[in-house]
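Exercise 7. Predict the joint structure of the components listed below.
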Amino acid sequence: MFRIPRRVKYSLFSIFLLAVLWEGAVDFSLLDPNLCPSPSMIVQNMFRLLVYNSLLLKIIVSSLYRLFLGYLLSVAFGVSLGILISVNQYFRTMVSPILSFFISVPTLAWVPLFLIAIGPSEETVVVTIFVASFFPIVYSTINGIRNLDKKYIWLAKIMGADKQDIYLKVLLPGALAAIIPGLRLAIGYAWRALVGAEMLTTGISLGIGSMIYASRAFNDVTTMFTGLVLISLIGLFMDSILMGELEKRTVRLWGMVK
Amino acid sequence: MALRKHIKSFSLFSLPILLILVLWELLSRLRILNPTLFSSPSQILSTLFELTLATGKTFTSHSLLIDIGVSLYRLSFSFLIALLIGLPLAILMGRSSLIYNLVDPIITLLVPIPGIAWAPIFIIWLGFGDPTIITVGAFASFFPIVQNVTMGIRSIDKRYLWCAEIMGARKRDFWLKILIPWSFPFLLTGVKLAIARGWRTIIAVEMIAASLSGLGFLIFDARDYLQPSVIYGGIIVLSFVYIALESLIRLVEKRTIEKWGIVLKGGL
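Solution:
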């Protein structure tokens, strides 16, 4: 018999309670529905947007497409740069001061520059996502390699491993214990940056951030809340379920973290 | 010897930056880089200098010092609000399982939403400018404080509680000698994250909440007038302000928890 875990029961109860209180407050006109719509209005609106040409699905898919494009680029460049910085001392001294400057800049502060350089298009959003997720990936890769027991490298060398073997069979798998939590952190950053970048980039028509920003023109608070609900649910899904499962199946399974 | 080592490490640190600056300057002087996109370092410097001297009295002209001050004022205001609401809530959540179970799921739902996504709603509720920016900033700083302090209080080792009880500790001793010292490092972690989050959020919201001042508005406004040197200058200032804020927190850490021996020197 399938039993619902206690935590889930509590969560469902508390969210239900909040929804009932909120709904009641709107129904008894303690809250103005034009300014703060009730949960039922938000769900209704979500359904309406879903049914109408499956607009909501298109919006979600185009946002996720941008997210994964920027994120994948970031993973590819971030992990390679992290490895390069870790193994080459000159490269490290050259690049790390520049990195520590860039990491202190809020990601969305780059958007005005990208808007001039790239234009108000999808590419601006993708590049912003790339920048947002880049640093956690680079730093987690560096940490992973730094914390790797040097004996593994010596051992591999003694047993006659060539450079390629050391990179692919020692450094990369060894660093995964740190890289995968870094990937989890990065997708959270990327998701936040995506919403912000879409709001600031006016040239794109489909996107969760654009949906929220566009509803400002119509004072459509219900659609704004619909966007917030989507952001929250998709963000939670990616963090807890997607990346949590990845962590469970890899580093936790291998016993590399507790 | 020590001096030579310092000089060497300093030159190793600054050489790459210098190299990039020289290359950048050369390329933009030779017009290889598009000047409407990449202003040269000397241009950025002179822009920063001009902005520092400007008074910011007219409608669209900025004054760097005022912009920095306004952004920092918004940050500290919103941080204080977040602390004043977050700390009592965190103590309640840490001490009572019932409240924890009721509130934690809602916080979990709200955390993935970036502050800037709330901005349009708050603009409708509160109007443009400071009220919206400060509220959204407080909203963003609120969660790290609540989550960290709650975790700190809930993680108090039960054995300490038993010991204190056996030795006849009073309520006041429990608060002063167990709860506060134990959860203080968690509070500092929360504060650090809250300031980082709040800063990023305030800069972002300044861009859309039409505030007429603030660093975020400075760089977003420069986009309209195609002034890349202002954007670059703003980004540099943003980075330096953040580094200054970070070292301030680091100083507090050194003076409190490291000195009191709650955590190891230089972190774990």
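Discussion. The longest helix of chain B spans residues 171-208.
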